[in-house]
Amino acid sequence: MKYLLSCMLLVICCSQSVFAAFEPRLSDARIRGLGGASAALAGYTPSIFSNPATIASTGPSDAGVSWYDPFMETDISTLQAYAALRQMPFDAHGTAGIGYERFGNRRYRETMAVVGYATKVFSGLTGGVSVSYMQREIAAGENDSAVGLNAGIVLAVSSKIDIGAAVQSVNEPGIGDHDERVTSTTIAGIALRPSENVVLAGDVEFRKERDAAWRLGGEAAVLPCLVLRAGVSGNPSTFSAGAGYRHALFRADAAIVRHPDFNDPGFAIGIQAVL
């Protein structure tokens, strides 16, 4: 049954390659706990995969790794690793970031390497750009690659409200012998901080030939070191819950994601450390 489910999901990915290849995947445990909302999480390095502008911060440099398995009993999982170098010698507000993502297994695999830079454009507005090298491997021996261009912004409306927007694969590169298009994805979101210990976030995502997707979530620090989260999303419909441990030098997060059409929940784990 596990093998059958894996094959079914892989067939879906391959058969819709024009619109399904390299679609945004949010594997970070904090983001998964927030229902997938990430477009306006200013200063949060894992969001480099959705909005390159979010990595900008005057805080310390950091790095981390995350793992997400959407069905627990399948090998269709996503691994992401990332790092951000902040307060560049030539730009006190600049942040350089890198990311690596691997999805799938030996039958179908997508890998992506991302290099990005974000900085303050003017007071309250941060801009970021990134380049993604995407590679697709299929068991039959097909091995294709493409380069995508991404851009985003984060606007600090006030000390408690951030708005973010980004376009991924804005150049819609072709991949494979049939020049299949990696279609662009537009995402917009908001992050609210009604108090020091509470964050509320929401995103909406648009992609060609797809219905709009939406994501909502919130987190609250119930103890100085403990954060609890909950989220919900549409297209696909999911419910999520998570928790995070915060320390001055590192943070560890975990989340459970429930899809109403599957019996087994998914899970995400991640750790992030100051460099």
Overview of the structural elements:
- It comes from Prosthecochloris aestuarii.
- This is PorV/PorQ family protein.
- Keywords: Signal.
- Residues 1-20 form the signal peptide.
- It is a single chain.
- With 275 residues, the protein is mainly beta.
- It has a single domain (2-274), classed as Porin (Beta Barrel), CATH 2.40.160.60.
- The chain is 8% helix and 57% strand.
- The protein is built from three helices and 16 strands.
- The protein has helices at residues 2-15, 17-20, 29-33; strands at 62-69, 78-88, 91-104, 108-122, 125-138, 143-158, 161-168, 174-175, 180-181, 185-195, 198-207, 213-223, 226-234, 238-246, 250-258, 266-274.
- A 14-stranded antiparallel barrel has the order 1-2-3-4-5-6-7-10-11-12-13-14-15-16. Strands 8-9 form a two-stranded antiparallel sheet.
- It starts with a helix and ends with a strand.
CATH topology name: Porin
**Unreliable residue stretches:** 1-20
> Going across the major beta sheet, what is the strand order?
1-2-3-4-5-6-7-10-11-12-13-14-15-16
Major sheet characteristics: 14 strands, antiparallel, barrel
Distance between the termini: 43 Å
Secondary structure tally, helices: 3
Radius of gyration: 18 Å
CATH superfamily: Outer membrane protein transport protein (OMPP1/FadL/TodX)
- The total of beta strands comes to 16
CATH class: Mainly Beta
Helical amount? under 10%
Strand content: over 45%
Keywords: Signal
Organism: Prosthecochloris aestuarii
Signal peptide: 1-20
Protein name: PorV/PorQ family protein
